[in-house]
Amino acid sequence: MKHTLRIITLVLALVMVFGLGATAYAADRPHFDKLTLEFVPSKDADVIIAGTANLPELVQAEMANLGYDIDEVDITVGTNYDATGEAMAAGAIDLGWLPGGTYALYSDDTEVILTATRNGLSNDSENPADWNGEENATQKNGPQVTFYRALIYATPSEYGKMLAEKVNNGEKLTWEDLDGAKWAVQKTSSSAGYIYPTMWLMENYDGKKISDLSNVIPIDSGYGTAFSYAAAEQVDVIVCYADGRNDYEASWTLPTDQQDETGKQGMGRSDSIWNELNVIGVTEGIYNDTVAISKESPFYTDELKAALQDCFINIINTDEGKAIFDVYSHTGYAKAVDSDYDGARAALTAVDG
Questions:
Q1: Cα(193)–Cα(206) distance, integer angstroms
Q2: What domains are defined for the chain?
Q3: DSSP string covering 150-216, please?
């Protein structure tokens, strides 16, 4: 009986030792109540939210594997690019997906940890006419690239058709041609929606900028609004990333009371977007979007940065992760440093100067 009691006592003691050891180990692991992630509205906000619905649980699981316990991962979409940058600068958002131009603007208060890679397009011509018509519809089947281009598009408005006809006939547009158009552009920190189209104007029209155009409509709500303005012929020119027509191809010809499979509202056009939205300008390459961390986040440490880099690289290398980040056309992530975006800072300076 005494022998049995000694064994029971020993077992209980071992259980307590290992139990205390496990508790101590868990207590040593970093623990966050909530990690906040925010995307900029380069796609429609509801499309981003729907597409990333499973991301929080993947982040929690992957970070747990990397030694971090996170109770909640919260995902939001900023009302515009600057709103996300400002929220990160204030420490209200821990991690943000920022275009290069927006990152350059807010890089004093944020730090890039990853650069997105994406499938290059089947077309990379600098001649705008090569992008137009069904026969030149771009496919996302090129090699992995760390850059993309912005395009300047003429809409199916009467004036937009005149611009497109000139370009497709091999004529160079004059400043007067462009200045006579009604333009829709994104916020000034948007790489594809403002900065690089401005640089295209500066290079081709004696330093003239978007701010020199006579009729410009700034859009706060993202590219979906620009495409809807184009479809409604409310503007003559819009600017967007090069695969924008791919993203709005289905919704372009849907009735306005219907939505495509991603939730984009139909725009009611009868002809293909490739025939109706013609490219009239092609910018130089833009370094890909960032994943950046707020330097004002209470969780900002070198160790966390390294863990988050591994976390998102691991997630996007899974089938589920690829499907999630397809909403941004991201197919991979590469570790990045701030100096990668010196070119974006130079572009921002040129545009603002």
A1: 21
A2: 31-120+287-352 (3.40.190.10), 128-286 (3.40.190.10)
A3: EEEEE-SSHHHHHHHHHHHTTPPPPHHHHHTSPEEE--TT-IIIIIHHHHHHHHHTTT--GGGSS-E
Burial of 284 (0-12, 13-18, 19+ CB in 10 A): middle
pTM of the prediction? 0.70
237-241 and 286-287 beta bridge pairing: unpaired
| Nearest by Cα to 238 from 276, 265, 286 | 276
Provide CB contacts within 8 A for 169, sequence distance 6+: none
More confident residue, 162 or 147: 162
- Does 213 score more than 70 pLDDT? yes
Q: Are 46 and 84 in contact (CB under 8 A)?
A: no
Q: Over the stretch 20-38, which tens digit does the pLDDT of each residue have?
A: 443 333 558 899 999 999 9
DSSP string, 61-103: HHHHHTT-EEEEEEEEE-SSHHHHHHHHHTTS-SEEEE-HHHH
> Which of 171, 196, 209 is CA-nearest to residue 288?
196
Helix axes 302-316, 55-65, angle to 10 degrees: 120
**Read out DSSP for 38-54?**
EE-SSS-HHHHHHHTTT
- Reduced DSSP (H G I as helix, E B as strand, rest coil) percent helix, strand, coil of the chain, to 5: 45, 20, 35
The answer to whether the CB of 101 falls within 8 A of the CB of 195 is yes
